[in-house]
Amino acid sequence: MEKTALFRVCAWPTVFICLVITLVGSWSGCAVLQKKNQSGELQQFSIPVEFDTLAGDVVVRGKNALACPLRFFIQFTESTPTAYTGPNPIVLPPQRPFSIVLGATGSSTQDIISKLKIQVYLGDPAVAHPDTADRYDFPFLPGRTYRVLQAYDGTFTHNNPNSRYAIDFKMNKGDTVCAAREGIVVGIVEGYRGGGAKEKYRNRDNFITLYHPQDGTFTQYAHLSYRGALVAIGDTVNRKQPIGLSGNTGYSTTPHLHFNTLLPGTNDLVGFPVRFQTLSGETLKSGMVVGH
What is the average pLDDT score of the chain? Predict the structure, then answer.
């Protein structure tokens, strides 16, 4: 279950381009508007950009409004005489404006834009160093117990670098999901309604992404209910704070919470193992019943 942000910039009639997702409102009942990428998937955050020219070069300007670093990979779908020789990927610091000079010798701005593809990934591998001494809280309310449906290296869906160290907790629809660590909300998808074990539901689940600036890692909480986020992008959350409502959206056979601990890899986020507060270093196994 890969939760990266894949953006593609295409030709538009104006120079202002909003990449993939806009969130308006919250669980308080306001409307939620989410834009889709070209695969039809809702994306978890937005990076608005503008294109400009400077001394004959095409310049991409914008702002990383998130509280975590982003990595921009600059690619072109067709051969183009651009003179871009900068770093690739480009690491964008959190909450800072950016300006990227692409170069466009002999090409029009619109021609460059039409061929430009930007892939955006969360985090910076250079600053991500998991705190192995920290112990995570279970991602649900104190006093509750839940059964582990699928643990590390689960053969059903925990069999790739992203989800290898994910844990699935059997939870009912509407059960409260809590932050396992203090962090900052950097991604939300909450616009999906359906779910099931069909390909059409793959990558169609609601989820929340938290960034942990203490060590540059992330946690994700997936298969949430429609409009099931109790937080907004930019919110700072505490351990055990309610952040969402469990559900059964996306590629899922039964209501549950998919909890994942992640750090930035070469491209996508990749999983890593953690320990929990109430266990003495014990690794969770399928079938175990655990609680605070």
Answer: 83
